[in-house]
């Protein structure tokens, strides 16, 4: 007789789904901006990070910034905002499709669902929505954490307050 230990244990928790840690490139002619927010507590010392790459995986830009005391969702919203801002203000990136990828379903919902969001971040979310409208080729999507490992490392660097880092090439 076989026994499924997971089903037999009263105290067991559902197993986490494990995603492969593989970054998927965007289509040729598009760019992908992976972003992440990190907080060392709720709230705690927080940082945001992002990396912009082309279809070949070439890094065109990145950032790692300390954002003070925040929760992780707030840091994620700020990371999305920073990525949008960098794309809108750099003429090189204004005419191409840029897919901003976040691993926070909460942040994605706050931005993509009209009238939805955190009252604390109404202005930031509204600003992101305006930049998406202005740019015309910005999309914000959700992807699992494992495929966002470089952005995650940059966000953690920011939450450790290791000094801000910013590079935008073209």
Automatic annotation (TrEMBL):
SUPFAM superfamilies in the record, alphabetically? Ribonuclease H-like (SSF53098)
Protein name stated in the entry = RNase H type-1 domain-containing protein
PANTHER family on file: OS05G0353850 PROTEIN, RNASE H TYPE-1 DOMAIN-CONTAINING PROTEIN
InterPro entries from the entry?
Answer: RNase_H-like (IPR053151), RNase_H-like_dom_plant (IPR044730), RNaseH-like_sf (IPR012337), RNaseH_domain (IPR002156), RNaseH_sf (IPR036397)
> Which residues belong to any copy of the RNase H type-1 domain?
34-157
* An example molecular function term from Gene Ontology annotations: nucleic acid binding
Q: Which organism is it from?
A: Dipteronia sinensis
